[in-house]
Amino acid sequence: LSIWEKPIFSRLVSFDHPEEIQEGMVFALETFWPASDGWSAARIEEQLVVTADGCEVITRFPAEELLVAGRQYVRGADLVKGEDPVAAK
What we know:
By secondary structure, the chain is mainly beta. It folds into 2 domains: 1-58, no CATH class; 61-89, no CATH class. Helices cover 10% and strands 36% of the residues. It has helices at 76-80, 85-88; strands at 26-34, 41-51, 54-57, 65-68, 72-75. Strands 1-2-3 form a 3-stranded antiparallel β-sheet, with no helix packed on it. It has a two-stranded antiparallel ribbon with strand order 4-5. A hairpin with a 2-residue loop joins β2 and β3 (54-57).
């Protein structure tokens, strides 16, 4: 096992090496949120299983509420607005 298993879907490799998504496959969907300091970042990961109708999120962690800087909770919708949740408080 590796930190990343095939298939890998990424703009860096998927156009040249397309993969077929099939029912029953399980994926980790990683999003990346870089901080304005150029160093810090958050990676929010969801586990998905491909179903006949699309996909189902099977992650049990409540990603709609994220711990920010170890002291503050922010709803996921606040992050979408493009605001710095720490500076806004």
